[in-house]
């Protein structure tokens, strides 16, 4: 590693958690305001959900571009550029007089925030080995998840108290703060020798996509995002039709985030002892069982916030066991170009998530049944994919 002035592990993880949280915090802060924004602009559900799905598509394109770019020119300049674009997107959303301008701002916002996610993974790969990276990634996620956990509640309260424009005023302030911290604290961690190795980025990407292990990891990561993003994009509407205010979603979302936090905490404790592969299998099984339980509850007529969110809390616990280990294992398959691996992994997640969000907009929202049937279907696909894998253990 060629980094100079690298901060302590604790400070580095705090910084990476902050920049990684930009995208999830933005999403979770924004989601509770969707019904209010729909009313403000007199838009259809599909039109409003386009501010989610197109932002996810922009995020996916950014993830695809920023990882290889960070392998080529360095982690620090790409991270700083991403923070600048993120701030610009927040300003555009804040000043948006129409749905079209808001949509453009959301796209710019998502494009900028994508740099933090993919470059943070590459920085961890630069600094730590695979086993330790899984633990440090879980630590980073535990810290990072604080923002997305509280964001729905904050978003609901801000929307009800000051209106939905206030969300973007808050995000603009946060984006300027993270930009200053990135400029001050993040050194360059890229290994110059690896960046000059001579293998093209396209060749690196092609080599990864020809590896069955990498494709398996990417498929599981995509299922996780499809489940999570699909649920959070529709749940606020379901609760609204049941007569609950925007803040109810934020309060009950804590169950989902709490489960995910606990799963990440267990990963930090047992990733080495139990092995990455075993934790992935346990997590995928928990994901399926909890999705089936939630589907059973809503099919039985239990249409309450508890019935919607408590099974998702258990599902989030399973995903907390899966995602850090999948990410570390996938990125470890490309030790010389971790940015490319991180980009491909994130691109698949965001594309599948965007398709899921827009597809769910076509289903009825006056009942939680379609949402949970979708959740069960994706969880079953993930479990079956894992059972059909024929690869040696990764740990």
Describe the structure using short key phrases.
mainly alpha, Growth Hormone, Chain: A, 17 helices, globular
Q: Report the mean per-residue pLDDT as an integer.
A: 83
User: If helices are DSSP runs of H or I spanning 4 or more residues, what is the number of helices?
Assistant: 17
CATH evolutionary superfamily: MFS general substrate transporter like domains
- Unreliable runs, pLDDT <50, ≥5 residues? 391-395
Q: In percent, how much strand structure appears in the residues?
A: under 5%
Using the coordinates above, name the CATH class: Mainly Alpha
Largest sheet, strands/sense/barrel: none
The structural domain count equals 1
Structural Rg: 20 Å
- Helix and strand content put the structural class at mainly alpha
| Fraction of residues in helix | over 70%
Order of helices and strands: HHHHHHHHHHHHHHHHH
**Cα separation of the termini:** 24 Å
Please tell me what the overall shape is. globular
Quickly give the CATH architecture: Up-down Bundle
For this structure, the CATH topology is Growth Hormone, Chain: A
Q: Got a strand count?
A: 0
